[in-house]
Amino acid sequence: MFKNLKFTKLIVLGLTVLTLFSFYIISKTISPQFLDGKKEIAIIKGENLLEIAGNLEAAGIIKSKISFILSSILRGTHSALKAGQYVFDPGLNLRQILSRIEKGEALFGYNDVVVTIPEGLTLGGIIDRLEKSGFKDASDIRGIKASSLEDTFDWLKLVPPKNNTLEGFLFPDTYRFSKDANAEEIAIKMLNRFDSKTKDIRKVSGENFYDVLKMASILEEEVIPSDMFLASGVLWKRLSIGMPLQVDASLVYELGRPIKRSDIDTLNSLYNTYKNKALPPTPISNPGLISLAAAVYPEKSNYLYYLSRSSDKVTIFSTTFEEHSLAKAKYLNR
């Protein structure tokens, strides 16, 4: 009798949890996902459910990639989402957005290709995304010199001749390109977007804008957006007192892979910010507006150290090396 009662309670508990979970998913699928104007995105053939959900969230089309993934799995359509170029109107809920992708209700007029460039991609990462969208000559962007376009975009004159690339200036956003666009046309469209989006920041930064851009690119890679302003204050303070920045992201950029602890001692490069007491010679990614604003308006504090907690990437700040060492032992899984 007691066994039956216990089993009954477990069933009731399980049904209750399932009911609450179902209500949670339903509430997420029927609420509007965004209200701030039309949004465009390209879903590329071969992208999996996790990639699609992440790109939709990064583009501000959905609030939660987890809810999108769970909804798609529950609907049984997770392996049948259609590639294409989509425009979504404000006020759509998650179910409506998912339904359109399931049915392949993409844009008409396939002479245009919509490409979403998220914050933090390197020049190489942008080229890879463009190539996956069908632009076979996208790698030619790597050969476009900043100096060749400085008559059109005078702020490119800030780029030193020895670092003559567009790294950092290809603004992350959603673009519509002609499917026949060449590398220069694509680059110029992205530079025009950069020009319009960063006017205020360039005005505040003046001749220091290239350094601000480099700092923003580091922040984009190092910390989550909510911690960027405080981390910016830490990094600018290190530079002001002659302390190395000691950011892993610049080594990753130079090496093209996750770093090993031995790389800190063996890598003889200006991108090794453990040895080099300065900003890296170029931006290490193409940053967005939040990281740019953080680089211009750093938050002052007594902190001199920080790390990203392994479990959730939340930034742990410390005032002394001793505190930082304790934080590393507690929060890093190394």
Structural descriptors:
single chain, 334 residues, mainly alpha, Dna Ligase, domain 1, two-stranded antiparallel sheet, 45% helix, 8% strand
Description of the structure:
Helix content is 45%, strand content 8%. The strands form three sheets. Strands 1-2 form a two-stranded antiparallel sheet. The chain has a two-stranded antiparallel ribbon with strand order 3-4. Strands 5-6 form a two-stranded antiparallel sheet. Helix 2 (49-58) runs antiparallel to helix 3 (65-75), helix 8 crosses helix 9 and helix 8 packs across helix 12 (289-296). A hairpin with a 6-residue loop joins strand 5 (305-308) and strand 6. It has helices at residues 2-30, 49-58, 65-75, 94-103, 123-132, 183-197, 199-205, 209-222, 228-240, 248-255, 263-266, 289-296, 321-331, and strands spanning 39-43, 84-88, 112-116, 174-178, 305-308, 315-318.
Topology:
Blueprint: H1 2-30, E1 39-43, H2 49-58, H3 65-75, E2 84-88, H4 94-103, E3 112-116, H5 123-132, E4 174-178, H6 183-197, H7 199-205, H8 209-222, H9 228-240, H10 248-255, H11 263-266, H12 289-296, E5 305-308, E6 315-318, H13 321-331
Helix pairs in contact: 2-3, 8-9, 8-12, 9-12
Gist of the model:
Helix content is 45%, strand content 8%. It is mainly alpha-helical and 334 residues long.
Helix content: 40-55%
Q: Name the helix and strand elements from N-terminus to C-terminus, one letter apiece.
A: HEHHEHEHEHHHHHHHEEH
Query: How much of the sequence is in beta strands?
Result: 5-15%
In round numbers, the mean pLDDT is 88
The computed structural class is: mainly alpha
Total of domains: 3
Strand order of the largest sheet: 1-2
Distance between the termini: 51 Å
Q: In DSSP terms, counting alpha (H) and pi (I) runs of 4 or more, how many helices?
A: 13
Radius of gyration, in angstroms, nearest whole number: 23 Å
- Major sheet details: 2 strands, antiparallel
User: Based on CA inertia axes, which overall geometry fits?
Assistant: globular
Low-confidence stretches: none
Q: Write down how many β-strands occur, each being a DSSP E stretch of 2 or more residues.
A: 6
